[in-house]
Amino acid sequence: MKRSVFVAGILALGVTAAIAQADVIAQRQKLMKDNGDHSRVIGAMLKDQAPFDLAQVQTALKAFSHSAKEMPQLFPANSKDGKTKAQPAVWEKKSDFDAHFAQFGKDAEAALASIKDSASFKAEMPKVLQNCGTCHKTFRQPVG
After folding, report:
1. What's the domain count of the chain?
2. What digits encode the pLDDT tens for the residues 71-118?
3. Cα–Cα distance between 83 and 25 in angstroms, integer?
4. Backbone φ and ψ of 86, nearest 5°
5. What is the four-CA torsion angle of 101, 20, 140, 111, rounded to 10 degrees?
6. For a Cys staple, 68 with which of 14, 72, 99, 104, CB 3.0–4.6 Å?
7. How high is the mean pLDDT of the chain?
8. Is residue 17 predicted with pLDDT exceeding 60?
9. For residue 77, is it within any domain?
10. Is residue 132 part of a domain?
């Protein structure tokens, strides 16, 4: 009887760990999807395919700042496996990875404070978006 309880406990612990791993992966994927959605709106404005909208820009920058703070903790060592496009470099160069998010957050906050019109938007926003491409090249599997 004790053995059955022990085995059931171990199995429950394994299932709990698998759920927690999937949950953290799902959380970071949602934040990244949200960032991508905001980036598409911003990109359209930068390319003059959509009118400049300060409220949308501020919403995007606040979301970027939030995700920059949240994202590093959503890559624990036990989340390397699973349905993820994160490269091993995330964990091999964790301090560098975390530094990219810190810079992304700083740039988003600086842009939030300085963007007041279309001209300042076009000058400042590319600095923020550059962080995305730099990080994706090193830490994310290519999409395609």
Report:
1. 1
2. 999 999 999 888 899 999 999 999 999 999 999 999 999 999 999 999
3. 8
4. -70, 135
5. -30
6. 104
7. 88
8. no
9. yes
10. yes
Alpha helices in the chain (DSSP H): 2-46, 54-70, 89-92, 94-114, 118-139
Please provide the distance, in angstroms rounded to a whole number, between the alpha carbons at the two ends of the chain: 52
- For the question of whether the overall pTM of this predicted structure is more than 0.85, the answer is no
Question: Can you tell me the distance from the alpha carbon of 69 to that of 88, in angstroms, rounded to the nearest whole number?
Answer: 21
The distance of Cα 136 from the centroid of its chain, to the nearest Å, equals 10
**Residue 25 near residue 79, CB atoms below 8 Å:** yes
Task: Give the range of the structural domain holding residue 71, as residue numbers without chain letter.
Answer: 2-139
Is the model's pLDDT at 12 over the cut of 70? no
The whole-angstrom separation of Cα 31 and Cα 24 is 11
Domain membership flag for residue 144: no
- And the tokens for 124? 């400042």
Q: What is the dihedral of CA 74, 141, 123, 119, to 10 degrees?
A: -90
For Cα atoms 131, 111, 125, give the angle at the middle one, nearest 5 degrees.
55
Supply the Cα-derived Rg of the chain in whole angstroms.
Answer: 19
